[in-house]
Type I-E CRISPR-associated endoribonuclease Cas2 (Candidatus Ornithomonoglobus merdipullorum), 294 residues
Amino acid sequence: MIVITMNNCPPKLRGDLSKWLFEINTGVFVGHVNARVREKLWDRICENIDTGQAAMVYSAKNEQHMEFRIHNSSWEPTDFDGLTLIKRPLPVVKRKPQKKEEELEPGFSKVAKRQMGRRRRMRSEGESKKYAFLDIETTGLDKESDEIIEIGVICTDEKTITERWSAVVIPQRNIPDSIIKLTGIDDKMIEHEGITLDEALRTLNDKICDRVTVIYNAPFDMAFLRRAEAVTGRSIHFKKVIDALSVARKRVDTVPDYKLETVAEYLDVSAKGHHRALDDCEILCRAYFKLNEF
């Protein structure tokens, strides 16, 4: 059983959902679909709902007998002793209007304007100052047929690295030669260091559940991670995900392309060791903090 609720739903998206689910009220869809169709429907919703909000609840084999996902909402799923609860934000107390920082008096320097803009971005993003920089390595680019072979995470408080973790993941198929050459991860390494996908997701969830997760090209990594959730039946609870690629596109406009190593070099961040998960996390961490100085 699956239930999806949305507001500001575009007509095209409503048409796509109506092929698989019944619309029993405005923006409320119900039905029975398999995990693969469910994941594709949720991906379609997240890609096309624009400024609208969406929530999905579906049956799962866990203590609560259900899982849920939320998109574009200030309400956040959070883990509480193994149970997934919804964190509702406190109501905003109205205060006496004050002069806004952006209402600058003549004579303010460009540096002052950038600093004020950065403070506004920090407030709007609701930064908790606790980040988890995440990267994965895969056997290819197709989330349906390719697999995760490595996961890396670097945790920071403020700008201080507090923990590094990575795991080689046992795939169901042999690793292509091109990926072995690119990453250095081969069957021998898998045999000696590899852990199951379920174990890797469990540890990953413990690392990131109370942090803002930063990923470079987040849609790619998230597609593989959502697929891994469907395969294992284990959920990963993301407090919030920031796509560092989108941040780079907004703040850097003089690079030939937006590959991580290209942006890193532009920011004077060494890209040595590229194409291993933990190395990429290190590059991403340093590059992201420099991007926030713009």
Observations:
- The mean pLDDT is 87.
